[in-house]
Amino acid sequence: MEPVRPLPQYLAQRYHGWYATTFAENRSWYRRLADEGQRPRAMVVSCCDSRVHVTSIFGAEQGEFFIHRNIANLVPPYEPDGDRHGTSAAVEYAVSYLRVAHIIVLGHSRCGGVQGCYDMCSGKAPELDEKTSFIGRWMDILRPGFERLPEGDEATRKLALEHEAIRVSLENLMTFPFIRDAVKDDRLSLHGLYNDIAEGGLWTLEPRTDEFVPV
Amino acid sequence: MEPVRPLPQYLAQRYHGWYATTFAENRSWYRRLADEGQRPRAMVVSCCDSRVHVTSIFGAEQGEFFIHRNIANLVPPYEPDGDRHGTSAAVEYAVSYLRVAHIIVLGHSRCGGVQGCYDMCSGKAPELDEKTSFIGRWMDILRPGFERLPEGDEATRKLALEHEAIRVSLENLMTFPFIRDAVKDDRLSLHGLYNDIAEGGLWTLEPRTDEFVPV
Amino acid sequence: MEPVRPLPQYLAQRYHGWYATTFAENRSWYRRLADEGQRPRAMVVSCCDSRVHVTSIFGAEQGEFFIHRNIANLVPPYEPDGDRHGTSAAVEYAVSYLRVAHIIVLGHSRCGGVQGCYDMCSGKAPELDEKTSFIGRWMDILRPGFERLPEGDEATRKLALEHEAIRVSLENLMTFPFIRDAVKDDRLSLHGLYNDIAEGGLWTLEPRTDEFVPV
Amino acid sequence: MEPVRPLPQYLAQRYHGWYATTFAENRSWYRRLADEGQRPRAMVVSCCDSRVHVTSIFGAEQGEFFIHRNIANLVPPYEPDGDRHGTSAAVEYAVSYLRVAHIIVLGHSRCGGVQGCYDMCSGKAPELDEKTSFIGRWMDILRPGFERLPEGDEATRKLALEHEAIRVSLENLMTFPFIRDAVKDDRLSLHGLYNDIAEGGLWTLEPRTDEFVPV
Known about the structure:
Chain A has helices at 9-36, 54-57, 86-97, 112-121, 126-129, 134-139, 143-147, 154-173, 177-184; strands spanning 42-47, 65-70, 102-108, 189-196, 201-206, 211-214.
């Protein structure tokens, strides 16, 4: 079989439905967005997980959010070493070119990436420790979060690590000079959010207490 | 000001609206998705651009698509060098853990990242050539696409480069051993799509001709 | 002639077309559905009528809906008397084993079964009153709906009886203990829909007013 | 919460897409079908299982097939005892009123109902033996099929029982006088089909050998 194939028919049908309804209703706005360029108010960094629907939760319309999604919504620290850094490129584009007013890091419950990090750091997933594991090397970003976990039972520690994935990313964002400058000039603010996918809960990181409180 | 601040009120309000309607309607299904884990049928690699709405175009519901979004929907080649590769980690998770049946690379018109690559490769954006430019280093992935552009006017060449961003990503996907194996075993197929955001058009890469045709 | 014969050729041809296209496109997903079992989000109870296409209306893909179809989309009341109750078995399987999140009762216009019930209850179809009439005995389920029809002309009363077929089924569903429990625990919700096959209209039962309103 | 609720929004959206495309394309035909009544060529008895898509496999258009779906595609024997027999009512309506030319019993692999029958008859599912088990009492229809299973390993016997679900239904169909008459007059033929959902295979019961052969 060819590796590359045409779009499966069921998705083609859904597209035609979208075109005849949502697109038809919004044609003039979409044209303006195309002609004048995007002007998103916020960047969202969220997880690839199929159960996290930032556009649904925030009723997001086309043009509103610049969205980067990766495993476990992680931002690495600033490392201008000439290598490929997809997340850093996305952050740079959002802040330096699009001049978004907010960066929202959105974590979530039952995160497979965080689970992998927990297992790896606990010595229970040696395959993730290997140099060739892309997931393992990516989740290394969260190791500092694992190391400062409080004692406790496993469920508590895993939830704490999901929270740490958000805190570590926010800390790493502040290592980028262009972000520090934008924050200092009050052109940009950062936000940490946690979504409980089973209960639909949304929690925001309260900077004074460094705790997550319900929105 | 604190760099980290609570969620802006307008987003909190939208969330409360979502919770009272969409979440309330689907509570039991979302709980099952949380308890039993996700089982997405496809992975989508699309751009962070706020005007590209894969979930809207495909009427995607929670649980259906594993979505990675980065600048210009690029996939780098396989490089298991122990460095951080967020896109490769997402692809590895989708194929090796979630065993998705499809990977869809979704490109789009008026892509700022592709424009940057075009300018950089044409010598018109020296700042992107610098080692410290995350965007420039990320867009290096697309250089092989630029080099094989046909002669022609600028508009034609830019459209061709947007198409190349999809082809290059599909080629790079095939450099990952676990993807080659899954394709060979007929467990996975790859798909290239192009969305014209002004006209709402959707084009699929036809493997026999290597051209994009309307869906 | 043998009563049992091989598949007519025109259907064999259609199957071969499906196998070469739809199945080939979705082979890996269908295999996963087979290996891992179904996890449908909703059960649909609809009529056998060839003009009611629930999979088409909802763009349903393999794996999405557990579909029971009988004459006039009726659900009988809970009667655990040891007799054969095919509809009750389907409901039990959907709720207790598959744990669907929704049961949708989908009625429709020009329903032959409802027409038969109307004629029978009006004394115009004595053959349906006979003990040996399977259709008549099945449509007895809808008698309570006929008895509460408002006065009016025949067309209005027949439409009202089609609506009653949906209401009676929803009421009967709530006589099943396992459904009452699932509804009480917020694991299950019930939905009444009416499809006008000539005009393509879809109406949903609004619980506060007990009236059907356009979707 | 109210047990009955309006249609979930994601299904409303899909409906609107269908209305704007499929319905719009076929409006005049759907109106004729509504005005002149259905005239289906065949009745299909298939399983409720979400993975069995008779309309997809046969490219079925609105108006073509009168479809009854129940657990394990079973037809009970003729029992005109005045009780409610939903399947018998559907068969009666198809043959006596709609005068279909074919009845197709479509079974499938990995059938949960057949599995339940196998377990029950093997003494491994005492809960299905209880009088109050709707599934158990429904699957009693297949007991004669279990009793004539050949010796062999479990996988072979389960596949054989899935085949028996089709044979038993065809045999039971022939106990209905109006079916015997229609078959004798060559107005009706019966067909047994088996669908392997993992491999997309379709098998037809060959009456001379009483074996299933690929279509």
